[in-house]
Design a protein that fits this description.
By secondary structure, this protein is α/β, with parallel strands linked by helices. The chain has one domain: Alpha-Beta Barrel (TIM Barrel). The chain has helices at 2-29, 46-50, 90-96, 121-134, 156-164, 180-183, 222-234, 263-271, 274-283, 300-314; strands at residues 62-65, 100-105, 110-113, 116-120, 140-146, 188-193, 212-214, 245-250, 292-295.
Amino acid sequence: MGSEVSKQIQRRKAVSMEKQMLFDLNENCGETFPGCDYRPTDRKNWMASLGPKDLHINNIVWPGTHNSATDRIGIPCISRPFAQCQTLSVYQQLALGTRVLDIRINENNRVCHGILLTYNIDVVINDVKKFLFKTTSEVIILEIRTEYGHRDPPEFEDYLEEKLSMYLIHQDDYVFGKTIAELLPKRIICVWKPRNSPQPKPGSPFCSAEYLKDNWIDTDLPSTKFDSNLKYLSDQAPVSSRYFFYRVENTVTAQPDNPVVCVRPVTGRIHGYARLFINRCFAEGCANRLQVFSTDFIGEDFVDACVGLTHARVHGEC
């Protein structure tokens, strides 16, 4: 019993120390970077505002959400706080400016986070189609994967193709060098990551797991996650010579050996440091590698930071 109490005390000290480290880093380094002052006038149509003919796929800093379809997961006030990573619906996220969705499903086409379930995947698809209907030049990356511990839903590729065929951008390495205008009217890069079934093949309407990569670090320590994000990003090739999307997630994850296990207070340890992260990317010489940047509980400022850096790239400011 005593050793467990001592362990918890040390864990809390580590969390407190790392929170202070990030706070001090932010105080000393600030949040400035090329494009940091830019604010899109219409977040729902920010790609259109930057110019589809000027906006190359590999030059975009794509604002994304982690566990995107968890706004209604679990039971309110009981299990929801342990799994909810977003409070906005998928449509609301897209209208806010999100352009990368992370959707986890089970064998029954239900969206899930671990063992907790929420609505059917149809809700996500309908929100995506609603958004595309209300815009003209916005392209999204729709990542759908079978959640760990679950089986692939049967005939899922057939289902997706039936629902989204008119929008799907087929698996093709040349996509990365194209502009938004060259892809239109196709508007969805759909990355399908089954757990047991074969991966989508070249030329398929769907991209395989190799087209969206990351280095997930499972920790609730904010400075540890921040530093590892920088390290792994630095190991990547520049976006101009890369034939896959690379994601950095501005999140930390609750751990079972820590007394704080609800998502919001844990991920809040790193949530406010997205602009600091971009600032440090420039300081470390890896800003030309930043591409997909995702977060829990996405808000306007996170979107603006990504769009601002994209704006600076389009105008040759970095």
